[in-house]
Structures are given as C-alpha cells and as structure tokens.
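Fill in residues.
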C-alpha cells in the first residue's frame, strides 16, 4: 500500500514516524495530514539510500535546488558537486533537470551521491530518448515513449515527478484568446504544446491520467502536478490560462488521491507582490489544501544576476501565505546554467525566505534558533553564532577577514559596541 492508503486506514508507518521526529510533531499529525491530502511524504520505495521528506501544512517550509546538465554543459562531476553543495547548505530536495549529455548516468549518480529527496521531469527523458535512440523528433514521441520515461525514473528511485497534466488544448486556446507577452516558459509545457499542435491530439498525460496513476502508485512516488502555464513575466501573472490549468489540477488531485496517490501542486513563476497571497489562496481552495510547491515567485523582471533575491522576497511572502515548498532560483537565472557558487547562493537565499515564513506561520521550533542567536550575540559568543548561522562558513570568513581588537566585538562599533556598553551599564 501507499503511504496515503496506510494513513487513511489509520496506520502510522515507520516513514511517518521518521518524518514526525524530523519535524518535531506527533506522528498522528503526519498521518492525519497525509490522509487529508494536506501533507505528502515523498519517498519512492526504490530509493533505498533516501530518507522520507514530509511537505505540507503545519510543517517546516521545504527548499528544493534545481541542478542538471544542458546540451551546452554535460559535466557529471560538476552536477555532483552542485548536489553536494546544495545538501551541505540546507536544500531538502534536489531536482535533476538534465537535458544534455549522459542524462541517465547523471541522474543515477545524483541519487547515489546523496540521501536527499529527488525530483525529476521524466518528459525530458522521453524526448531525449526519442531523439537519440529512435531518430525521432520530439513531436514524434508516442504515448508509450512518454510512459517509458516515467517508468525509467521510477525504477531509478526518483521520489517525486513533475508531470504537466494540466496542459490541455482547451487551456492553450484560452491563452491564445487572452494573449500573453511570453506565452509558455515551461520546458515541459512547451514540449507538450508542440506535441499536441503537431499531432492534433490531447495531452497524453491528461488523456491517460489513470495509466500515470497506476505507474506512480506501484512506487509510491508523489505526483508534482506541473504548472505548464506559469507566468514567465509579471504581466502574464494570474491570467485565465494559469487559473484554468489550476482548476484542472484540482480535479486531477482528487482523482489521484482517490486512487491512493499522493499529490502536490506546482505554482508560479513571476508574480507581482500584491498578487502572491491571492495565488496561494486560489491554489489551496481549488486543490483542496494539497501542498503547494512554488518557483520563487520572482517579484520583478529586471534584476538579472540578482534573481535569487527577487525569488527570496516572493518566496517569503508565498510561504507565509501558505506555500509549503519553495524552489530556489540562482543568481544566474535567465542568463546561464548555474555554477556551484550560484547553487550555494540560491539555496541560502531561499532558506532565508522559508525560515522567515516559518516564523510568521508559527511553525514548531522555527523561532528557537533566532532566540539562541540573540543570546549568543549579546554574549559576543562568536563560535555560538557561527554554529547557528545558515551559512557558518561565510559568517566565519567575514569575521576572520576583519581585524579584531582585544575587546572581542566586531569592527562595526569596536570598543563602542552596544552589547558591551549595555553589559557594563546593567551591572552597575
């Protein structure tokens, strides 16, 4: 049985117990959330070196790091180093989005390298296999080709898969009728639309959704229903194509859960600050509280090189409003494939957003480290501050690079440090 089926029978599994300990909540809380569909427990039964990751309402906001090769950069060693760095600096999950080079070897190496939760987009695999192994164009993929890619990822132990089931011919028409500046920026969405247009057929993942459920249920993979119509710029946010797709995803969520398959929903994208809370509320209402996994959202389109910051701003607001899972954006977004430093910066920026939101939501234990940090700062306990920092290496580096006198304070205030002055004053 799947974790969802166990939960609906009132059974607390070992995976649920593990998640409860990790989250600092009772195991009944995890079980009841899974049963209600407001929590998913991501863990493919084939992922033998992986650990279950609970995502959803009442839990710590999780952070995902996207890595993966492209046709212009196919270095496995580089992708493995990105995976290591992402986990070192606190990513809860890694999505392998490889589209170039030895994609099978890269995915398997990433899964073997870390115990983190692993996600992927099997449609990329299907497209590559069709082109490379069968001398087909993407539009010549068969339904069997698409499902073969899904099975391959399931067998390798991928814990959650992005599938663009809500990209339908009807939604495409709504997008065309309303008009967009950037049309579709999702690769999976663009692949699907190109396939539908050429073949004059409906999206196979929508039309054959029951077959998709049969496969994912065998492995207890979590379906991450992708947002193929996510806005690629602020001007396209919250339009009828995006919302129509979300309505379809809500319907598919109910079908999946009825079949015993866990589901989370993916969301935008680029969204103005004043629309973020509305987007979260719409998703939660239309998808019956299913966990929401958002990319950013980015709150401006004019900060290339700093999009990890635009992402963190939107991510903090989204998570505080109820988003459960944040996908990072790196400084190289919209410019190039991220390097190792970009991955580190992206993970830290998004962790800051997630943690800030958890404090606002009152998540169990979220405020404890902040209180501990305040106490260490008051005592000028530098080692304690480093230990509590999200990026201890960077904090220690800054401290080491600044000449410090015997007073023990930092060089911002030196001997006039407010902590030291107040300490002396309070002792009088």
């Amino acid at each position: 049985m799947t974790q969802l089926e166990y939960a609906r029978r009132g059974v607390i599994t070992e995976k649920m117990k593990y998640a409860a300990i990790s989250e600092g909540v009772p195991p009944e809380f995890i079980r009841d959330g899974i049963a209600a569909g407001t929590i998913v427990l991501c863990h493919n039964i084939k992922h033998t070196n992986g650990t279950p990751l609970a995502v959803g309402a009442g839990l710590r906001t999780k952070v995902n790091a996207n890595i993966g090769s492209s046709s212009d950069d196919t270095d496995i060693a580089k992708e493995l180093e990105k995976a290591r760095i992402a986990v070192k600096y606190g990513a809860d999950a890694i999505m392998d989005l490889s589209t170039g080079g030895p994609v099978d070897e890269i995915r398997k190496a990433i899964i073997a390298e870390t115990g983190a939760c692993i996600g992927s987009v099997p449609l990329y695999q299907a497209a590559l296999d069709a082109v490379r192994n069968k001398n087909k164009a993407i539009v010549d993929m068969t339904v069997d080709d698409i499902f073969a890619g899904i099975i391959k990822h399931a067998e390798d132990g991928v814990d959650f898969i992005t599938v663009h089931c809500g990209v339908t011919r009807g939604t495409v028409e709504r997008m065309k009728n309303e008009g967009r500046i950037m049309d579709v920026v999702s690769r999976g969405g663009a692949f699907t639309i190109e396939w539908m247009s050429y073949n004059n057929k409906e999206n196979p993942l929508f039309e054959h959704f029951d077959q998709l459920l049969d496969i994912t249920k065998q492995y207890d993979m979590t379906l991450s229903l992708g947002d193929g119509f996510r806005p690629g710029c602020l001007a396209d946010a919250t339009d009828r194509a995006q919302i129509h797709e979300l309505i379809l995803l809500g319907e598919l969520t109910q079908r999946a859960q009825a079949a015993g398959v866990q589901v989370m929903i993916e969301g935008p994208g680029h969204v103005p600050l004043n629309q973020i809370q509305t987007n979260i509320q719409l998703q939660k209402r239309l998808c019956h509280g299913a966990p929401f996994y958002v990319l950013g959202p980015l709150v401006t389109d004019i900060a290339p090189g700093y999009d990890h910051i635009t992402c963190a701003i939107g991510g903090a607001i989204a998570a505080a409003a109820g988003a459960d899972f944040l996908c990072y954006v790196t400084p190289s977004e919209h410019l190039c494939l991220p390097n190792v430093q970009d991955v580190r910066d992206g993970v830290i920026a998004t962790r800051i957003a997630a943690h800030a939101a958890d404090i606002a939501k009152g998540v169990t234990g979220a405020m404890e480290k902040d209180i501990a940090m305040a106490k260490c700062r008051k005592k000028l306990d530098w080692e304690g501050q480093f230990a509590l920092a999200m990026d201890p290496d960077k904090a220690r580096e800054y401290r080491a690079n600044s000449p410090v006198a015997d007073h023990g304070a930092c060089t911002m205030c030196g001997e006039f440090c407010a902590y030291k002055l107040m300490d002396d004053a309070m002792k009088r």
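The chain is about 50% helix and 10% strand.
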